[in-house]
Write a structure and sequence with these properties.
mainly alpha, 0% strand
Length: 48
C-alpha cells in the first residue's frame, strides 16, 4: 500500500544536530583511548 511518513519537528532535528556537534567537539578534546570501543547513546553507562 502506501508509505508511512513520520513528521519530525524542526526542534527535534536541531536537537539531534547539536548533540552530534557536541559529541564531535568532546571527542576532539578527549579522544577515545581505543578507537571503535566508545559507547554511544548511553550503552556503557552504569544504571542506578
Amino acid at each position: 500500500m502506501g508509505e508511512i511518513v513520520r513528521f519530525i519537528p524542526k526542534s527535534e532535528l536541531e536537537r539531534a544536530r547539536l548533540i552530534r556537534e557536541a559529541r564531535a567537539i568532546y571527542d576532539s578534546i578527549f579522544p577515545p583511548s581505543v578507537p571503535g570501543q566508545v559507547p554511544h547513546d548511553g550503552e556503557g553507562r552504569v544504571k542506578t
